[in-house]
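Attaching the record inline, Q. Sequence:
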Amino acid sequence: MNIRGPLEKDVLRLLREIPGVTAEAMAPTKRRADIVLRAGDVTHVVEVKAQRLTNAGAARQIIDRAQDLPKGTHLLLVARTTTEEARRLLEEKGIGVIDTHGNMRVEFPGLFLWTEGTLPATQDVRKEPPVKLTGKAGVAAQALLREPQRKWQVHDLAKEADISVGLAHRVLVRLERENLLEVEGAGPKRIRQVGNPSALLDLWAEEMRDRGVRRLRAFRLGRDPRAQAKILSRALTEAKIEHAVSGPAGAARLAPFVTAIPVADIWVADTLPLNEVAAAAQAEVVQEGHNILLRQVPGDAPLAFRAKVDDVWTVDPFRLFFDLRQEPKRGREQADQLRKEVIRF
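Structure, as predicted:
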C-alpha cells in the first residue's frame, strides 16, 4: 500500500515502521490532514490521525471526532500500538486502522485490507499505564461513571470507592492523561469531572478483569425463571449473605429486552464457602444441568454499588454491562442494549 500526502513527522515515522506500507511526504496544502491512499487501482483521499497507543477509550474519542468530518471523508488511524477492542470499535464505525505491529483493518469503498499482527516478544513494560482500571481501581472508575456530572476531588473519590487516597489520585492522573477528564484548579483544590463518560466506559470494560474467581453450579427447582432470582435473593438475604444478581437475570430487572433467563448468575461475598451459600439458597450442587451460578472473588469488587431492584439485590448497571459482555451467547448484544436503554452513553 502506498500513502502519499502532506504528512506530519509523527505520521510519517509511524507509517514507515509498518510492514508493506510505503509513505511519501508531499508539500503542505491548505488541508494538511489529507493524504492519498492507493492500493492497486483504487485511490482514496483520507484524513489521517496518528497517536502512539490507542485503547478502547481513545478509540471512542476518535469515533466522536469522526462525526465532524465532511461527508464522504474517510478517516485512517495510524498508531504504534492498538488494542483488540479499539480495533473492533473503530472497525464498526468504518474507521481504518493500521499500526506498527502489523494490524491493518481498512474497509473503504472498493478497498479492503486486513492483516493480523503480533506484539513483539520484548515489550517495554515501562510504557504500560501506571494503573489499569481493574480491581479497586476499577471500582473507582465505576464511581466516576455513576456520577459523570459530579466535580471530584481526590478524597471524594477515595471515600466513594472505599479506596486509598493514593490509589484514587493515580486513577485520576491516568484518566487525565487519557483526556477523559476536565480539570479545574491546581494543587489540593484541583477538581476533575468526567469529560467523556462513553469513552471511560469503553476503557473500563476493556481493562476490567476478575482474578481468582471461584464458581459453583447449582440447581433449584422453579417453574418461573424470572421469579427464581427474587426467591434466591430473599433466601440469601435471610441468611445474611451479601450478594448481587447479574447476567440476564439482573438485566431483566432493569430493562425488558431480556426474554430468556436460563441461569441465575449471582455474585456472593467472599465470606463463606460456596457450598454453604448453595445450602442457604436451598439449592443442590450439580456438575451439569444447573440453573444457578454462584461466583465470588477476593475483594468483592462485583458487589460495589449493588442496589435493590424489584426487591432483588442487583449489581450496579455498569458491572452488569461488563458481566453481560462475558456471556458467550448474545452477551455483547445484550450489553449494548443495556447501554442504550439504561446507561445511555
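Residues 2-115 form one domain. Residues 126 and 132 are 13 Å apart (CA to CA).

More tomorrow.
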